[in-house]
Amino acid sequence: MTSSSPLLDCGVDLETISLVVLCLNCILFVPALLLNVMAAWISWHLKTKSSFVVYLKNLVVADLLMTLIIPLRAGDRLPGSPWGLQAFNCQFGSVLFYLCMYVSVVLMGVISLDRFFKIVQPGGKLFGQSAMFGKIVSAIVWVVLLSINTIPTMVLTNEKPANNTAELCMAMKNDLGKRYHNAVTIFCNMIFLVVLIVIGFCYTCIAKRVIESYRNSGSSNVEGKRKIKARVFIVLVVFLVCFAPYHITRIPYVQRQVVNKINCQWASLKVAKSLTLWLATTNVCLDPLIYILLCNAFRKKLCEVKLLRQLFSTTAQVNSEETSL
Prior knowledge:
By secondary structure, the protein is mainly α. The protein has a single domain, classed as Rhodopsin 7-helix transmembrane proteins (Rhopdopsin 7-helix transmembrane proteins). The protein has helices at 14-44, 51-75, 83-119, 125-128, 131-156, 168-171, 175-216, 222-258, 264-281, 283-294, 296-303, 306-324. The longest helix is centred in the middle third of the chain and has 42 residues, at 175-216. Residues 25-291 form the G-protein coupled receptors family 1 profile domain.
Protein backbone atom coordinates (compact mmCIF):
# COMPACT_ATOMS: atom_id res chain seq x y z
CA MET A 1 0.00 0.00 0.00
CA THR A 2 1.08 3.55 -0.55
CA SER A 3 1.57 5.89 2.32
CA SER A 4 -1.72 6.88 3.86
CA SER A 5 -0.59 10.48 4.38
CA PRO A 6 -2.56 11.89 1.43
CA LEU A 7 -5.72 10.39 3.00
CA LEU A 8 -5.21 11.33 6.66
CA ASP A 9 -7.69 14.21 6.50
CA CYS A 10 -10.31 12.35 4.46
CA GLY A 11 -11.94 10.57 7.38
CA VAL A 12 -11.68 7.27 5.48
CA ASP A 13 -9.93 4.26 7.00
CA LEU A 14 -9.40 1.95 4.04
CA GLU A 15 -7.85 -0.80 6.15
CA THR A 16 -10.92 -0.96 8.38
CA ILE A 17 -13.24 -0.98 5.36
CA SER A 18 -11.16 -3.78 3.84
CA LEU A 19 -11.56 -5.86 6.99
CA VAL A 20 -15.31 -5.14 7.06
CA VAL A 21 -15.66 -6.34 3.47
CA LEU A 22 -13.54 -9.40 4.33
CA CYS A 23 -15.94 -10.27 7.17
CA LEU A 24 -18.98 -9.66 4.96
CA ASN A 25 -17.57 -12.02 2.31
CA CYS A 26 -16.91 -14.70 4.94
CA ILE A 27 -20.49 -14.36 6.21
CA LEU A 28 -21.85 -14.55 2.66
CA PHE A 29 -19.76 -17.55 1.56
CA VAL A 30 -21.35 -20.28 3.71
CA PRO A 31 -25.04 -19.70 2.79
CA ALA A 32 -24.04 -18.98 -0.82
CA LEU A 33 -22.17 -22.27 -1.06
CA LEU A 34 -25.01 -24.27 0.51
CA LEU A 35 -27.68 -22.66 -1.69
CA ASN A 36 -25.70 -23.01 -4.91
CA VAL A 37 -24.61 -26.60 -4.25
CA MET A 38 -28.27 -27.42 -3.66
CA ALA A 39 -29.27 -25.52 -6.82
CA ALA A 40 -26.55 -27.35 -8.78
CA TRP A 41 -27.78 -30.73 -7.50
CA ILE A 42 -31.38 -29.92 -8.43
CA SER A 43 -30.52 -28.51 -11.86
CA TRP A 44 -28.32 -31.56 -12.58
CA HIS A 45 -31.40 -33.77 -12.13
CA LEU A 46 -33.66 -31.61 -14.29
CA LYS A 47 -34.32 -32.92 -17.79
CA THR A 48 -33.01 -30.50 -20.41
CA LYS A 49 -36.11 -30.25 -22.59
CA SER A 50 -36.32 -26.48 -23.13
CA SER A 51 -34.13 -23.43 -23.56
CA PHE A 52 -35.29 -22.15 -20.16
CA VAL A 53 -33.76 -25.14 -18.35
CA VAL A 54 -30.53 -24.67 -20.33
CA TYR A 55 -30.33 -21.01 -19.26
CA LEU A 56 -31.13 -22.01 -15.68
CA LYS A 57 -28.31 -24.57 -15.60
CA ASN A 58 -25.81 -22.08 -17.03
CA LEU A 59 -26.91 -19.51 -14.46
CA VAL A 60 -26.35 -22.06 -11.69
CA VAL A 61 -22.84 -22.80 -13.04
CA ALA A 62 -21.98 -19.08 -13.13
CA ASP A 63 -23.28 -18.52 -9.60
CA LEU A 64 -21.46 -21.57 -8.22
CA LEU A 65 -18.15 -20.53 -9.80
CA MET A 66 -18.65 -16.99 -8.51
CA THR A 67 -19.27 -18.41 -5.03
CA LEU A 68 -16.10 -20.52 -5.11
CA ILE A 69 -14.01 -17.43 -5.97
CA ILE A 70 -15.28 -15.51 -2.90
CA PRO A 71 -12.64 -17.07 -0.53
CA LEU A 72 -9.85 -16.09 -2.93
CA ARG A 73 -11.04 -12.50 -3.02
CA ALA A 74 -11.49 -12.52 0.77
CA GLY A 75 -7.98 -13.91 1.32
CA ASP A 76 -6.61 -11.09 -0.78
CA ARG A 77 -7.84 -8.66 1.90
CA LEU A 78 -6.21 -10.44 4.84
CA PRO A 79 -3.60 -8.26 6.62
CA GLY A 80 -0.15 -9.26 5.42
CA SER A 81 -1.45 -11.36 2.51
CA PRO A 82 1.46 -12.25 0.19
CA TRP A 83 2.03 -10.23 -2.96
CA GLY A 84 1.77 -13.40 -5.05
CA LEU A 85 -1.80 -14.03 -3.84
CA GLN A 86 -2.79 -10.45 -4.56
CA ALA A 87 -1.23 -10.58 -8.03
CA PHE A 88 -2.94 -13.92 -8.79
CA ASN A 89 -6.28 -12.47 -7.72
CA CYS A 90 -5.74 -9.38 -9.92
CA GLN A 91 -4.82 -11.39 -13.01
CA PHE A 92 -7.15 -14.39 -12.66
CA GLY A 93 -9.45 -14.46 -9.61
CA SER A 94 -11.14 -11.08 -10.00
CA VAL A 95 -11.35 -11.43 -13.78
CA LEU A 96 -13.14 -14.80 -13.52
CA PHE A 97 -15.37 -13.34 -10.79
CA TYR A 98 -16.51 -10.55 -13.11
CA LEU A 99 -16.98 -13.04 -15.96
CA CYS A 100 -19.39 -15.08 -13.83
CA MET A 101 -21.18 -11.96 -12.62
CA TYR A 102 -21.88 -10.66 -16.12
CA VAL A 103 -22.81 -14.10 -17.43
CA SER A 104 -25.41 -14.12 -14.65
CA VAL A 105 -26.60 -10.63 -15.59
CA VAL A 106 -26.96 -11.49 -19.29
CA LEU A 107 -28.66 -14.84 -18.59
CA MET A 108 -31.21 -13.13 -16.36
CA GLY A 109 -32.06 -10.93 -19.33
CA VAL A 110 -32.19 -13.92 -21.67
CA ILE A 111 -34.47 -15.79 -19.26
CA SER A 112 -36.84 -12.82 -19.14
CA LEU A 113 -36.99 -12.80 -22.96
CA ASP A 114 -37.61 -16.56 -22.95
CA ARG A 115 -40.53 -16.13 -20.53
CA PHE A 116 -41.83 -13.20 -22.58
CA PHE A 117 -41.96 -15.20 -25.84
CA LYS A 118 -43.54 -18.18 -24.10
CA ILE A 119 -46.32 -16.23 -22.37
CA VAL A 120 -46.85 -12.99 -24.30
CA GLN A 121 -45.85 -14.07 -27.82
CA PRO A 122 -46.38 -17.86 -27.76
CA GLY A 123 -46.36 -18.09 -31.56
CA GLY A 124 -42.62 -17.52 -31.66
CA LYS A 125 -41.64 -20.18 -29.16
CA LEU A 126 -41.29 -23.30 -31.31
CA PHE A 127 -37.65 -22.87 -32.32
CA GLY A 128 -36.60 -20.21 -29.84
CA GLN A 129 -37.48 -22.39 -26.86
CA SER A 130 -35.80 -25.60 -27.94
CA ALA A 131 -32.94 -26.97 -25.84
CA MET A 132 -30.58 -26.70 -28.81
CA PHE A 133 -31.36 -23.01 -29.23
CA GLY A 134 -30.74 -22.46 -25.53
CA LYS A 135 -27.35 -24.20 -25.75
CA ILE A 136 -26.33 -22.03 -28.71
CA VAL A 137 -27.36 -18.80 -26.95
CA SER A 138 -25.63 -19.83 -23.72
CA ALA A 139 -22.43 -20.73 -25.58
CA ILE A 140 -22.49 -17.35 -27.35
CA VAL A 141 -22.85 -15.54 -24.01
CA TRP A 142 -19.86 -17.35 -22.50
CA VAL A 143 -17.67 -17.03 -25.60
CA VAL A 144 -18.41 -13.32 -26.18
CA LEU A 145 -17.68 -12.36 -22.57
CA LEU A 146 -14.58 -14.55 -22.47
CA SER A 147 -13.20 -13.09 -25.69
CA ILE A 148 -14.10 -9.43 -25.02
CA ASN A 149 -13.61 -9.17 -21.28
CA THR A 150 -11.84 -12.06 -19.60
CA ILE A 151 -8.96 -13.25 -21.80
CA PRO A 152 -7.74 -9.80 -22.94
CA THR A 153 -7.84 -8.53 -19.35
CA MET A 154 -5.80 -11.50 -18.13
CA VAL A 155 -3.25 -10.98 -20.90
CA LEU A 156 -2.95 -7.24 -20.25
CA THR A 157 -2.57 -7.66 -16.47
CA ASN A 158 0.97 -9.01 -16.44
CA GLU A 159 3.23 -6.14 -15.31
CA LYS A 160 5.17 -6.18 -12.03
CA PRO A 161 4.67 -2.86 -10.18
CA ALA A 162 7.85 -0.89 -9.54
CA ASN A 163 6.72 -0.05 -5.98
CA ASN A 164 3.85 -0.64 -3.54
CA THR A 165 0.61 1.02 -4.56
CA ALA A 166 -2.95 1.32 -3.34
CA GLU A 167 -4.07 0.21 -6.82
CA LEU A 168 -2.09 -2.99 -7.33
CA CYS A 169 -4.36 -4.45 -10.01
CA MET A 170 -4.21 -1.28 -12.08
CA ALA A 171 -0.42 -1.04 -11.61
CA MET A 172 -0.13 -4.51 -13.16
CA LYS A 173 -1.54 -3.16 -16.44
CA ASN A 174 0.38 -1.30 -19.14
CA ASP A 175 -1.08 1.79 -20.83
CA LEU A 176 -3.05 -0.33 -23.30
CA GLY A 177 -4.35 -2.47 -20.44
CA LYS A 178 -5.57 0.61 -18.56
CA ARG A 179 -7.38 2.00 -21.60
CA TYR A 180 -8.89 -1.41 -22.29
CA HIS A 181 -10.02 -1.73 -18.67
CA ASN A 182 -11.83 1.60 -18.94
CA ALA A 183 -13.51 0.51 -22.19
CA VAL A 184 -14.55 -2.83 -20.67
CA THR A 185 -16.06 -1.00 -17.70
CA ILE A 186 -18.24 1.12 -20.01
CA PHE A 187 -19.18 -2.00 -22.01
CA CYS A 188 -20.23 -3.87 -18.85
CA ASN A 189 -22.30 -0.91 -17.63
CA MET A 190 -24.08 -0.88 -21.00
CA ILE A 191 -24.81 -4.59 -20.58
CA PHE A 192 -26.37 -3.91 -17.19
CA LEU A 193 -28.49 -1.04 -18.49
CA VAL A 194 -29.78 -3.01 -21.51
CA VAL A 195 -30.60 -6.06 -19.38
CA LEU A 196 -32.38 -3.87 -16.81
CA ILE A 197 -34.60 -2.41 -19.55
CA VAL A 198 -35.26 -5.87 -21.02
CA ILE A 199 -36.18 -7.38 -17.64
CA GLY A 200 -38.44 -4.46 -16.73
CA PHE A 201 -40.24 -4.57 -20.08
CA CYS A 202 -40.61 -8.36 -20.28
CA TYR A 203 -41.87 -9.01 -16.79
CA THR A 204 -44.25 -6.04 -16.88
CA CYS A 205 -45.76 -7.43 -20.11
CA ILE A 206 -45.92 -10.93 -18.60
CA ALA A 207 -47.74 -9.67 -15.52
CA LYS A 208 -50.25 -7.75 -17.65
CA ARG A 209 -50.90 -10.77 -19.91
CA VAL A 210 -51.47 -13.17 -17.02
CA ILE A 211 -53.76 -10.73 -15.21
CA GLU A 212 -55.69 -10.15 -18.46
CA SER A 213 -56.13 -13.90 -18.86
CA TYR A 214 -57.65 -14.03 -15.37
CA ARG A 215 -59.97 -11.18 -16.29
CA ASN A 216 -61.00 -12.65 -19.66
CA SER A 217 -61.78 -16.01 -18.08
CA GLY A 218 -64.03 -14.30 -15.56
CA SER A 219 -61.82 -15.44 -12.71
CA SER A 220 -61.71 -13.36 -9.55
CA ASN A 221 -58.52 -15.03 -8.37
CA VAL A 222 -57.18 -12.12 -6.36
CA GLU A 223 -54.55 -14.34 -4.73
CA GLY A 224 -53.25 -15.47 -8.13
CA LYS A 225 -52.99 -11.90 -9.38
CA ARG A 226 -51.18 -10.90 -6.21
CA LYS A 227 -48.64 -13.71 -6.63
CA ILE A 228 -47.94 -12.73 -10.24
CA LYS A 229 -47.30 -9.12 -9.24
CA ALA A 230 -45.13 -10.29 -6.33
CA ARG A 231 -42.98 -12.44 -8.62
CA VAL A 232 -42.42 -9.58 -11.05
CA PHE A 233 -41.64 -7.24 -8.18
CA ILE A 234 -39.16 -9.67 -6.58
CA VAL A 235 -37.22 -10.28 -9.82
CA LEU A 236 -36.91 -6.55 -10.52
CA VAL A 237 -36.00 -5.67 -6.93
CA VAL A 238 -33.36 -8.42 -6.70
CA PHE A 239 -31.76 -7.21 -9.92
CA LEU A 240 -31.90 -3.53 -9.00
CA VAL A 241 -30.80 -3.86 -5.37
CA CYS A 242 -27.91 -6.17 -6.22
CA PHE A 243 -26.48 -4.54 -9.32
CA ALA A 244 -27.63 -0.90 -9.65
CA PRO A 245 -25.54 0.61 -6.78
CA TYR A 246 -22.36 -1.05 -8.06
CA HIS A 247 -22.81 0.12 -11.64
CA ILE A 248 -23.57 3.66 -10.52
CA THR A 249 -20.28 3.70 -8.58
CA ARG A 250 -18.03 1.80 -10.96
CA ILE A 251 -17.44 4.24 -13.82
CA PRO A 252 -16.36 7.28 -11.74
CA TYR A 253 -14.17 5.00 -9.60
CA VAL A 254 -12.46 3.38 -12.59
CA GLN A 255 -11.79 6.78 -14.19
CA ARG A 256 -9.74 7.76 -11.11
CA GLN A 257 -8.30 4.27 -10.76
CA VAL A 258 -6.86 4.34 -14.30
CA VAL A 259 -4.95 7.60 -13.73
CA ASN A 260 -3.94 6.47 -10.21
CA LYS A 261 -5.36 9.67 -8.72
CA ILE A 262 -5.13 8.92 -4.98
CA ASN A 263 -7.12 11.57 -3.13
CA CYS A 264 -10.14 11.89 -0.85
CA GLN A 265 -12.63 11.49 -3.68
CA TRP A 266 -10.84 8.34 -4.82
CA ALA A 267 -10.92 6.97 -1.26
CA SER A 268 -14.67 7.62 -0.92
CA LEU A 269 -15.35 5.98 -4.27
CA LYS A 270 -13.16 3.00 -3.33
CA VAL A 271 -15.21 2.47 -0.17
CA ALA A 272 -18.46 2.76 -2.15
CA LYS A 273 -17.16 0.40 -4.83
CA SER A 274 -16.06 -2.21 -2.27
CA LEU A 275 -19.39 -2.20 -0.43
CA THR A 276 -21.57 -2.13 -3.56
CA LEU A 277 -19.52 -4.94 -5.13
CA TRP A 278 -20.26 -7.04 -2.05
CA LEU A 279 -23.93 -6.15 -2.48
CA ALA A 280 -23.72 -7.34 -6.11
CA THR A 281 -22.13 -10.57 -4.87
CA THR A 282 -25.18 -11.30 -2.68
CA ASN A 283 -26.96 -12.09 -5.93
CA VAL A 284 -25.52 -15.62 -5.66
CA CYS A 285 -27.78 -16.14 -2.63
CA LEU A 286 -30.84 -14.51 -4.20
CA ASP A 287 -30.80 -16.26 -7.59
CA PRO A 288 -32.07 -19.56 -6.08
CA LEU A 289 -35.17 -17.60 -5.02
CA ILE A 290 -35.72 -16.69 -8.67
CA TYR A 291 -35.30 -20.35 -9.70
CA ILE A 292 -38.09 -21.30 -7.29
CA LEU A 293 -40.37 -18.51 -8.49
CA LEU A 294 -39.94 -19.11 -12.22
CA CYS A 295 -39.33 -22.84 -12.64
CA ASN A 296 -42.05 -25.31 -11.68
CA ALA A 297 -39.75 -28.29 -12.31
CA PHE A 298 -37.17 -26.77 -9.94
CA ARG A 299 -39.83 -26.40 -7.23
CA LYS A 300 -40.95 -30.01 -7.64
CA LYS A 301 -37.39 -31.32 -7.47
CA LEU A 302 -36.74 -29.11 -4.45
CA CYS A 303 -39.65 -30.73 -2.64
CA GLU A 304 -38.02 -34.13 -3.14
CA VAL A 305 -35.25 -33.16 -0.74
CA LYS A 306 -36.33 -34.88 2.49
CA LEU A 307 -35.59 -32.04 4.90
CA LEU A 308 -37.36 -29.48 2.72
CA ARG A 309 -40.28 -31.82 2.10
CA GLN A 310 -40.80 -32.12 5.85
CA LEU A 311 -40.57 -28.33 6.17
CA PHE A 312 -43.12 -27.77 3.37
CA SER A 313 -45.50 -30.39 4.81
CA THR A 314 -45.25 -28.78 8.26
CA THR A 315 -45.91 -25.35 6.75
CA ALA A 316 -48.90 -26.68 4.83
CA GLN A 317 -50.28 -28.27 8.03
CA VAL A 318 -49.91 -25.00 9.94
CA ASN A 319 -51.63 -23.09 7.13
CA SER A 320 -54.45 -25.62 7.15
CA GLU A 321 -54.91 -25.27 10.90
CA GLU A 322 -54.91 -21.45 10.63
CA THR A 323 -57.54 -21.65 7.89
CA SER A 324 -59.83 -23.85 10.02
CA LEU A 325 -59.75 -21.41 12.93
